[in-house]
Specification:
Layout (H helix, E strand, L loop, with lengths): L17 H10 L8 H10 L4 H13 L7 H7 L4 H13 L5 H9 L4 H17 L5 H11 L6 H14 L4 H11 L8 H19 L2 H13 L6 H15 L3 H17 L3 H11 L1 H5 L4 H12 L22
Helix pairs in contact: 1-2, 2-3, 3-5, 5-6, 5-7, 6-8, 7-9, 8-10, 9-11, 10-11, 10-12, 12-13, 12-14, 13-14, 14-15, 14-17, 15-17
Length: about 325
């Protein structure tokens, strides 16, 4: 049977073993600060020493010590939920990008009790770092690779970031790039489901060109690993959402040309789509952008093609 945690019993803690004694001595030496995280880890994992040393370990973690692992907090979370959550919140609220490592570690954990609180922690990180969507999106990306089991956690998290209290555009743009990515076979159904939630939000409420441009570029980058029919549908739908405004139409043309220039094989895809359904694509791709994409496809690789200005000569073909 497991040794009970002395911090949760009424009996006084037993004397720590030799390794714990050495760790306690290290903590008393300021000159050995580089070893304090290892000492904290050993002492927190020792049920005889945990009650005395967990508060200090949590303070060091909250202050940003990168050598104290999130996994350690997960181990003691079932019996110390409130102090562990407080330390995680404090660490994620700190300025800088140190919270990214914490989110990455949380994405790899499957501790059931802690998983119930992770969505709230991600939301708090976004509130503290509204211009940083990269790390929150990376968390979503990593959890998606857990397959269908991730749905129970990610669906409320992502829908909350889009519908309940919409996240700022930088966060939504980073999410768009993740959800539109091809991912693994296990993650694709949930990616597609969450991507539809994002598209619906941008169609009716968000309407942010940065988010839609991120979708376009992600569609192009993943085109080699995604069925062509899905890439075509995503590019066309993104274009239809962007061309609702002159600025969005210009950004779609510019982004399409840049992706055709920079993403191997994408120019060939777009050229084929334009040839197969010219009237359908005339509503989203301007003539200048079309000519540039076609020239990129036919030009030799050794002859880089300068990007032309994307003119807007459609007139009534643009949807209102």
């Amino acid at each position: 049977p497991a040794t009970p945690d002395s911090s949760s019993s009424g009996s006084p803690p037993r004397a720590p073993g030799p390794a714990a004694l050495r760790a306690e001595i290290l903590l008393e030496r300021p000159g050995d600060a580089d070893l304090h995280a290892a000492a904290h880890t050993l002492l927190v994992r020792d049920p005889k020493a945990r009650r005395r040393h967990l508060p200090g370990a949590l303070r060091a973690f909250a202050a940003g010590d990168p050598r104290l692992p999130v996994e350690l907090l997960a181990e003691v979370f079932p019996s110390h939920q409130e102090p562990v959550l407080a330390a995680l919140r404090a660490r994620l609220a700190r300025p800088g990008d140190g919270g990214g490592a914490v989110l990455r570690a949380l994405a790899g954990l499957d501790t059931p009790a802690l998983a119930l609180h992770v969505a709230g922690l991600v939301r708090e990180y976004i509130d503290a770092h509204p211009d940083d969507g990269t790390h929150a999106a990376e968390y979503v990306d990593l959890r998606l690779e857990h397959g269908p089991a991730a749905r129970a956690l990610l669906l409320p998290l992502v829908t909350g970031l889009l519908r309940d209290r919409p996240a700022p555009p930088p966060v939504r743009a980073a999410l768009a790039a993740v959800l539109a990515g091809p991912g693994s076979a296990d993650s694709r159904p949930l990616r597609a489901e969450l991507l539809e939630v994002l598209l619906e939000f941008e169609q009716t409420t968000g309407r942010d060109p940065d988010v839609l441009e991120a979708l376009l570029r992600a569609a192009a980058r993943g085109s080699e690993r995604r069925p062509e029919i899905r890439t075509r549908a995503l590019v066309h739908r993104t274009g239809m959402l962007l061309v609702r405004t002159p600025e969005g139409a210009a950004r779609f043309d510019r982004g399409l040309v840049e992706c055709a220039r920079d993403v191997p094989g994408f120019a060939a895809l777009v050229t084929r789509w334009l040839a197969d359904a010219p009237e359908e694509w005339a509503a989203v791709v301007g003539p200048s952008a079309r000519r540039t994409v076609e020239a990129l496809e036919t030009s030799r690789p050794s002859m880089p093609m300068p990007m032309q200005a994307a003119g807007r000569e459609h007139g009534s073909l643009r949807p209102a």
